[in-house]
Specification:
Elements: H1 2-6, E1 9-13, E2 25-30, E3 41-45, E4 51-63, H2 68-74, E5 90-101, E6 125-128, H3 131-138, E7 148-155, E8 161-167, E9 179-182, H4 189-204, E10 210-216, H5 234-242, E11 253-258, E12 274-277, H6 288-291, H7 301-314, H8 328-333, E13 338-339, E14 342-343, H9 351-367, E15 381-382, H10 384-388, E16 396-400, H11 406-426, E17 436-441, H12 456-471, E18 473-479, H13 487-491, E19 495-498, H14 503-506, H15 516-522, E20 529-534, E21 541-544
């Protein structure tokens, strides 16, 4: 009797000749004065004293009226000033996707018995699931304690709360990896969640084994992540603690800011302990292809020319035709690409194609450059790849690209991921690398857009998304629209986080992992609410999360 008082019956299962319960779904009617919402997790009685857990996906209210017209007539042909002549019998019905059956209890080793997946019969009592039931339904109970990464908090309609955990093996490997976040749910929501998740990972594993690289792509949002917060209220602090985490800023943070045309930092904010970065020609000898990632090259002419230039610069000798090429200006206007201002053929590449290449390159490194491409780096300016090669576990590296041109942003991001990927792929024992590197980037659709078949940058991102987990290179990415990103990148993300989106967006094929009813629910998510689909979870779940615990303007 005490169990029922603690967890009361909220309805009973219902099956009809036209709407049957199945092994995958069941219905139940809701008793009066009980509020149920989509994404609530419920439990139903089943065979052999077992419980079947399910996710509420939709709700319907049905009456005995044959039609809406009958309701109109029963209200004295549309009168709203009187009670209806014919009171209707009505009930609210919840639609539920089956998540798991506990088989009637646990075995001696603590695991559940084999589940019973017969359809739930009619007239079985239904209750809200408790925290332990929610964990069992999602599969969290199968996770090792040391593998649990807090991802947020479920709060159901009856005020029951449960911490949601991700399995480390499916976030940073080796089973699977990568996290992708999408949605239009409000200012900095996606970034805030990514930063919360990074902090959660760092607090729940040995931080010395992990290094973090953060791309700051908007204003100065992420250039104060080492400073304590000034706006974190007590409720937010309590939520951090409820998740088993400390509300604290990032530690051991290094900031890298782009050089501007005046030699000063080209940044919205100049944080403490920051360094400038810039690129000389020799820094880019083997990376020029990244600069041309957004330039169509159907005949591979640019690719061929970039190969010639890279080979010439890397292997040049005193008698080489590339001997006098020392900087961007001499490459653009001197031998062997040009003579007296006119383009020259190189290998199999015609002079006209060389001229086109020079025009593109001049635009990118001279006329439309913000200043990161320089003929000579100053003493206080780093080659970014050299700095990344010194990466250490337990440290966070924030690279600012917010005020750069689009082609410069793509180049810097490409430079970072290529450098990291090569470091881990080569397994150079002298580098003393951390076991994992987590790379966070927003606006992923700019670097790996859907519909673009091939580019040097996309190839690099695909390498990480498909093989990074085995190397320890993990991508945490975000964008407004999931459908705007290359499907092989999002398809290889074992964890997908969805914020509020538009109805037209959720109808795209990229969202086929969601039940049809849940797709519409995504359009109603509030700011701070996210939907989590994780490799271990049997159904997606709605969570809330605390705001990041660092200084925000």
């Amino acid at each position: 009797m005490s169990d029922k008082k603690e967890n009361p019956v909220i309805g009973r299962t219902s099956a009809t000749d036209r709407d049957a319960n199945t092994a995958d779904k069941f219905n139940y009617w809701i008793t009066s004065n009980v509020i149920v919402n989509p994404f609530d997790i419920v439990e139903s009685e089943h065979f052999k004293d077992s419980k079947t857990y399910g996710l509420v996906t939709n709700l319907e209210h049905r009456t005995d009226a044959a039609s809406h017209l009958a309701n109109f007539v029963s209200n004295n042909f549309g009168s709203v000033s009187e009670d209806p002549n014919t009171p209707r019998v009505g009930a609210t019905l919840a639609k539920v996707n089956v998540m798991m059956n506990d088989g009637g209890g646990k075995k001696p080793d603590g695991t559940y018995k084999d589940g019973i997946y017969m359809p739930v019969e009619n007239e079985k009592n239904v209750r809200f699931a408790e925290e332990s039931g929610i964990h069992a339904a999602l599969g969290i109970d199968t996770m090792k304690e040391e593998n649990r990464i807090p991802a947020g908090l479920i709060k159901m309609s009856n005020e029951v709360e449960a911490v949601v955990y991700l399995d480390k093996s499916y976030v940073i490997g080796p089973e699977s990896a990568h996290v992708n976040i999408s949605g239009i749910s409000g200012l900095a929501t996606k970034t805030s969640y990514a930063m919360f998740l990074l902090q959660s990972i760092l607090q729940k594993i040995d931080p010395t084994e992990v290094a973090v690289i953060i791309m700051n792509v908007k204003h100065g949002d992420l250039l104060k992540v080492d400073e304590p917060p000034v706006k974190l209220d007590e409720g937010q602090k309590a939520l951090w603690l409820k998740l088993g985490l400390e509300p604290r800023p990032f530690q051991n943070v290094h900031y890298y800011l782009p050089r501007g045309k005046n030699g000063e930092a080209n940044s919205f904010v100049r944080p403490r302990q920051s360094r400038l970065y810039a690129y000389e020609l020799n820094d880019c000898a083997e990376k020029l292809d990244l600069l041309f990632s957004s330039i169509p090259d159907p005949t591979e002419t640019i690719d061929s020319l970039v190969g010639e230039i890279a080979s010439g610069l890397v292997n040049k000798t005193a008698k080489s035709p590339w001997a006098k090429v020392q900087d961007w200006l001499s490459l653009l206007d001197g031998e062997p690409l040009a003579d007296a201002g006119k383009s020259k053929p190189i290998g199999d590449v015609k002079a006209s194609s060389v001229g086109k290449f020079r025009r593109h390159l001049r635009r990118m490194v001279k006329t439309r450059s913000t200043g990161i491409f320089t003929d000579r780096r100053g003493r206080n300016e780093d080659h970014l790849a050299d700095a990344i090669r010194k990466i250490e576990g337990g440290h966070t590296y924030v690279v600012d690209i917010a005020k750069l041109q689009d082609h410069e942003q793509a180049f810097v991001f490409g430079d970072i991921i290529r450098t990291v990927y090569e470091m881990f792929a080569e397994s150079d024992e002298t580098l003393n690398l951390p076991k994992k590197v987590l790379i966070f980037v927003d606006e992923l659709n700019k670097y790996a857009p859907a519909g673009v078949k091939d580019s040097p940058l996309i190839e690099q991102i695909l390498d990480i998304s498909e093989r990074g987990r085995s190397l320890g290179v993990i991508l945490i990415s975000a964008q407004q629209f999931l459908s705007a990103v290359h499907p092989r990148v999002t398809g290889n993300s074992a964890t997908k986080i969805l914020g509020r989106s538009t109805s037209s967006e959720v109808m795209q094929p990229d969202y086929r992992f969601l039940d049809q009813d849940l797709k519409l629910s995504v359009t109603r998510l509030s700011k701070g609410e996210l939907l989590v689909q994780h490799a271990v979870f049997r159904q997606p779940v709605k969570i809330m999360f605390p705001m990041p615990a660092y200084k925000q303007d």
